[in-house]
Amino acid sequence: MDFRLYRLLTNIHMDKKIKENKIIPLADRVLIRPLTEKEMEKKSNFGIIIPDTIDKEKTRDQGVVVAVGEGKYSDGKLIKMNVKIGDKVLFSKYAYDEVKINEEDFFILKEENILAIIN
Fold first, then answer.
1. In total, how many domains does the chain have?
2. What is the sign of the dihedral through the CA atoms of 26, 111, 106 and 14?
3. Quick check: is 8 in a domain?
4. Please, are residues 40 and 63 in contact by the beta-carbon 8 Å criterion?
5. pTM of the prediction?
6. CATH number at residue 98
7. Which letter, b or e, does each residue of 45-75 get, where b requires 16 or more Cβ atoms within 10 Å of its Cβ?
8. Is 4 part of a structural domain of the chain?
9. Any idea which of 8-12, 57-61, 96-100 has the lowest mean pLDDT?
10. What is the per-residue pLDDT across 33-71, written as a single tens digit (0 to 9) for each?
């Protein structure tokens, strides 16, 4: 079967904006929109905002999943993805490839490099 036809027939999950741009992660890869500075703003238990200057280094290791691949094959069996669109995730600092889509930054990384889902 032609790969393009296969992709059209399978149900690849992705955010509507990304679907319009035809970005489809392959296998066990995930497309992530990094959190903005406002979304990363930290608060203490008492509601006090902690400024970024207190952090030792500013990292981009959190984001929101906007598209996921179908999963990877192991011994001929498809292993489904554990993350879904809309999940806020924490991922390895140096494990992503940065891409620009319509002047907006996104990261593509393998699911194994996602460390946690943040609730």
1. 1
2. positive
3. no
4. no
5. 0.69
6. 2.30.33.40
7. eeeeeeeeeeeeeeeebbbbbbbbbbebeee
8. no
9. 8-12
10. 998 877 776 654 556 655 555 554 556 789 999 999 999
